[in-house]
Amino acid sequence: ATLVDATQDPAAQPFVRAIRFADEGRFHIRKFILGLLEKAVQRNVAVYEETAVRTVEERGGRSVVQTEKGTIATQYVVFATGAPHQVFADLQQYVTPTMTYVVNARFTGAAPIADCTYWDTGHPYQYFRPYDDHTIMLGGADARAGERQPIAPYEKLQSYLKARWHEPFEITHQWSG
After folding, report:
1. How many CB atoms lie within 10 A of CB 137?
2. Do residues 116 and 11 lie in contact, with contact meaning Cβ atoms separated by under 8 Å?
């Protein structure tokens, strides 16, 4: 990663400064996760999506998970979640739930940035990269989960795009995490 100045690197324009991540690896997260799940299932790993967990305890060297639908006893348990569950209350003091927002902006012409990944130096910072030849993926407008914002996050991201790139664009997708 390098801190770039627009006077030294035209790819940083229209920004004064940005952090540039050249040659950063990219992959399709959904294909990656589905591939992991396929391999796990081939190895007899059970996957329980959208399953509310009530309690987790250790009994006789096994993890026992009580769910809304029944009990699972196994040697290993992996919780793949964005925040610790209430059964792990002692961890919650170390986590600040934060939401981030992302839009894909498709430009009429070529995407107006170099093929790199960028973070600006604002607070909160925005992050962006080309998605394809005509589209920028822009994320940011981060805020504490549940916190009311004076400007809707997707509007903030659109304003960010308009202020920096004056070419016409259309928002094709938006999501949060």
Report:
1. 17
2. yes
- The Cα 14–Cα 120 span in angstroms is 11
Integer Cα distance of 34 and 166 in angstroms: 38
pTM confidence score: 0.67
SS3 per-residue string spanning 96-165: CCEEEEEEEEEECCCCCCCCCEEECCCCCCCEEEEEECCEEEEEEEEEECCCCCCCCHHHHHHHHHHHHC
Q: Is 66 helix (H, G, I), strand (E, B) or coil?
A: strand
Q: How does pLDDT run across 81-139, given as a tens digit for each residue?
A: 666 666 677 777 777 788 999 999 999 999 988 888 888 878 888 999 999 999 999 99
Residue 71's contacts (CB-CB under 8 Å, 6 or more residues apart) are 64, 65
Widest CA span in the chain: 65
How do residues 4-23 score in pLDDT, each as one tens digit? 887 776 666 667 777 777 77
Q: What does DSSP assign to residue 69?
A: S
Residues 6+ apart with CB under 8 A from 100: 139, 140, 141, 142, 176, 177
Is residue 12 classed as helix, strand or coil in its secondary structure? helix
Q: Report strand pairing: 117-119 vs 98-107.
A: unpaired
